[in-house]
Amino acid sequence: MDFEHEYVNSSTNHWYISFLSKNYNEKMLEFRSAGNAVKTSADNAVYLPAGEYWIGVASSTYYSNMDYTVTVNYERNIGQYETESNNTMATASQISLDKPITGNIFPRDDVDYYKFTVTKTTDVYIYFEHNYINSSTNHWYIQIFEKNTNKKLEFRVKGNQVITSSDKVNLEPGEYYVTVAVSTYHSTMDYTLTVKTQ
């Protein structure tokens, strides 16, 4: 989402922008725009199912009656992105082995659930990527577990660790879930996750 306005000689935030979901009654995205930032883009994308959504624009620290323009940028999701709300096992986004999917954690208590199927006994591992964050603290917590919630694998990813490959885990045929949640620090940055077999 992009927010544009004419120049205001101030570095203070004048507008507060939020993206709201009718279906899930939750805030999906929020950011602020300063007076001297004539174009502000949201830090992260939101991956949504079909439905109705609202954009809210309100004053922030300072008020301005200047005209603004809001643009919602759209890319069709054909399986390359998570679909919110996928915060439970029942609403998990379906993924395929060896096929990457992109998501992000917003708000802080968001947990992304993914579901995959193993048709024969297989060694798998998780390949996790994100852009660089100047921090050696853990930002993401990732798990694999069975439908009965028996944990098979867990690991954490630091901000300055742009590529992480987990240990391998041997899985019997069946359905499994991957969760991605916040760790010590929270980032809304996109990540790409792949459950790999080789």
Fold and architecture overview:
The two termini are 37 Å apart. A hairpin with a 4-residue loop joins strand 11 and strand 12. This protein folds into two domains: 70 residues; 104 residues, Jelly Rolls (Sandwich), CATH 2.60.120. With 198 residues, the protein is mainly beta. The chain is built from no helices and 16 strands. The chain is 0% helix and 48% strand. The strands form four sheets. Strands 7-9-15-11-12 form a five-stranded mixed β-sheet, with no helix packed on it. Strands 8, 10, 13, 14 and 16 form a five-stranded antiparallel β-sheet that branches. It has a three-stranded antiparallel β-sheet with strand order 4-1-6, with no helix packed on it.
Q: H/E order of the elements? A: EEEEEEEEEEEEEEEE
Mean pLDDT: 93
**Could you name the ranges where pLDDT drops below 50 across 5 or more consecutive residues?**
none
Quote the CATH topology of the largest domain. Answer: Jelly Rolls
Instruction: Report strand %.
Output: over 45%
Distance between the termini: 37 Å
Q: What gross morphology would you assign? A: elongated
Number of domains: 2
Query: What topology, given as strand order, has the largest sheet?
Result: 7-9-15-11-12
CATH structural architecture of the largest domain: Sandwich
CATH class of the largest domain: Mainly Beta
Helical segment count: 0
| Strands, total number | 16
Radius of gyration: 19 Å
User: Which percent range fits the helix content?
Assistant: under 10%
The largest pleated sheet is described as: 5 strands, mixed
By secondary-structure content and strand pairing, the structural class works out as mainly beta
